[in-house]
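Async update (no meeting this week)

Hi team, since we skipped the sync, here's where things stand on the single-chain job. The sequence we agreed to prioritize is pasted below, unchanged from the tracker. I ran it this morning and attached the output directly underneath so nobody has to dig for it. Comments welcome in thread, and please keep replies under the output.
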Amino acid sequence: MERKKLNKILWPVALILLNSLWFGISDNAAPHEINDFDHAIEERTITLAGVFDQDKPMPSVFEVEFRGLTTEEGTVGWKIFDDKDVVVAQWSGELNESSGWKGELKPGTYRFNTTVSQGIITEQTLYIQPFGNYVFEGHIALSTLLIVVAFAETFARKKGGEYLSRKNSSNAQGTEKTPFSRTKSGMPEHDSTSSENDPWRTPKGLP
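Output:
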C-alpha cells in the first residue's frame, strides 16, 4: 500500500481514537469523601479547583446513604453551603428515603452539614467531573491540533524528499569520471625507461 493512501486511512483513525480518549477522560469523576460508616458524622469542608483557573461550573453528584444502627426510623438531612454561607443544595426526610443530589458546582469552597437522629450513620461521597463542561472545547482543540500535525508532517516529508533529491543529484555530478586521465609521474610503476639508458642492457658487440 502506498504511503499516501496509508496516511489517508491512519489520520482519520487517529482522529477517532483521540476524541474517544478525550471523551473517556472528560466523563471521569473525581470522588471526595465527606463521611463514611466507619467514622462519626462530621461537618466537612472541601475546596474544588477549576480547570486552568476557570470559573466554569462542574457536573456534580452527591451520593448519600443513611443506615440505622439501633433504630429503623428517624429523620435525616444534609445541606451544602458555599463560601458565603449560602445554601446551594439541601435535602431532609426519613431514614429510608432516597437522599442523593445531582447538579453543578462552581470552583470554590463548600461546607457539608449533616443532621441525623440518634443511632443513624451515613456515607456521603461527592463526585466531580472537572472536564465535564469542556467536552466540546476539548474535541475542537484536539481535532485542530491533529489536523495541524498532519499538515506539518506532510509538508516536512515533502521538503525532506526534495532536499535529499537535490543532494543526491549534486553528489552524482561530482563523482562523474573524465574520459582521459593524466599519466602519473614520480612513481616507479609509471616511469618508462628507454632501452639505451637501461643499466641492465646487453653490452654492445654481444649477440
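Quick observations from my side:
The domain at 29-130 is CATH 2.60.120 (Jelly Rolls).
The mean pLDDT is 80.
Reply here if anything looks off.
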